[in-house]
Amino acid sequence: MNFNLFAAEEQAIEKARKLGEALAVAAPDCAADFEELVEAFQRSTREQRRLVRVSDRLQAQLGAANQELERRRQEAETALAHLREAQEAIIQAEKLASLGALVAGVAHEINTPVGIAVSCASHLADATRELRRLSDDGTISRGDFARYLATAGDTATLILTNCQRAAQLITGFKQVAVDRASAERRRFNLSKTLQETLASLQPKLRPSGHTVTVLCPADVELDSFPGVLSQILANLVMNALTHAFPDGRAGRLTLAVELSDVNMVRLSFADDGVGMSEDNRLRVFEPFFTTRRGHGGTGLGLHIVHNLVVGALKGSITVDSAIGTGTRFVLLFPRQTPERD
């Protein structure tokens, strides 16, 4: 193939040689100079051929390098896709674990009113059997009957009150669980959703003695995703319990809501814990970054919070913290979430 590139040069050299032979006869004085000229042209042609061979070799090497680069690129894209799938699976597992903690909270909170109702029902049953025995023996008195009526009234009131309390807890927890599982958009009262979420977290908060203060107007209505907001709040609380109070002391958590304007909500979550360094503050939303690995930290809680605030609520989140001054997260998001693309 390369020789075809120099066909014209070969023909020119051949003609030059014939011309040189004729010139050697007709003009011997010019023949030597002409021969040198032909030799120079031949050297130039040989050099061009060498350069073409080098170019072909370099092109072949470049082609092989491009193929290897394409193979490596495909491998990197495949590895990245697998990494994203694994990360998504871990995040979903974290969400399910949070939902499992909610279920445990439901059982713990409902246990108290249900236990009281069962005890009262048992006491009322015993009093009823005793009254029936007295009636069967014919020894019942007005005092016995009056005492039974008082007992029945008190226990019935306790049973009704505690059953209503259990029903309220079940309704609240059910709504929180449904919201988290379905991520359904609906209109909801912000204060009520925050209270329901915090109620589900009481089994985690109560043993450590932490107090939670909620400052939220009672009439703030949102058109958004209550399950997402509940997940965000739960992750912020659990993050505070894991990192803000490593010494086990009781702390104070403050949740404050205000309307920055008619369409935007500003929600701040603060603790009075140990705080964090500037280096940690800058990395706090990175996936799998944690200072408590092996002690309850997975490095995904705040990463999930950031993704939910930015992705689902179409808002923003910032963090302000320093060693010894506690930590404050500030969320800013619209009251009516824009339609997803």
UniProtKB/TrEMBL annotation:
Residues 105-337 form the Histidine kinase domain. PROSITE patterns: HIS_KIN. Residues 55-96 form a coiled coil. This is histidine kinase. InterPro entries: HATPase_C_sf, HATPase_dom, His_kinase_dom, Sig_transdc_His_kin-like_C. It holds the Pfam family HATPase_c. Keywords: Coiled coil, Kinase, Transferase. GO terms for molecular function: protein histidine kinase activity. The keyword Kinase applies. It catalyses: ATP + protein L-histidine = ADP + protein N-phospho-L-histidine. It comes from the Bacteria. The keyword Transferase applies. Its EC number is 2.7.13.3. It comes from Azospirillum griseum. SMART domains: HATPase_c.
